[in-house]
């Protein structure tokens, strides 16, 4: 049963990554009047926001896939160099590109101050957990590294859960104002992920075999 759940999770994340690719394709034209950008006309002219948006959109899939590799038992045991390479790609991308660009986008987010606060906290925690994971591996603190990577990737998946919750509100036709819905989604997209991450950490779902293999 546990194996089935793991396979289902991997398939779901890979499918979500493919959807992220499809969502990012319209922005390759750099047309300011495409999809989400229709709602950002007041800030599109701001250079650092515009650069942050395109960076965030175009590297999102790489972060999702590279992070997923970190939780492959088979990859860690059979191809540890690939595991490490993917880990460095993930960490550098989050710390230098995705995290900072997310922080800028959070500052200019739709939905008012509460949505802005949520996305900015998300970006800071995302960068912080990833730095902590890299520092732990530098100090050979294997368990802490595994725990911090679990938290970091939980926040990475907020890009997926945010869109999932938005889709469910539309499908279920929940009676709520667009502004209120966006604020709720902004917070739930990452807080519920972190709660699940803490549950997995306490159950030592990833920690034991990751720590055992890395320290070998």
From TrEMBL:
It holds the Pfam family DUF2306. The chain crosses the membrane at residues 7-28, 53-76, 88-108, 114-138, 150-169, 181-201. Keywords: Membrane, Transmembrane, Transmembrane helix. It comes from the Bacteria. The keyword Lipoprotein does not apply. The keyword 4Fe-4S does not apply. InterPro entries: DUF2306_membrane (IPR018750). This is DUF2306 domain-containing protein. It comes from Chitinophaga caseinilytica. The lineage of its organism: Bacteria, Pseudomonadati, Bacteroidota, Chitinophagia, Chitinophagales.
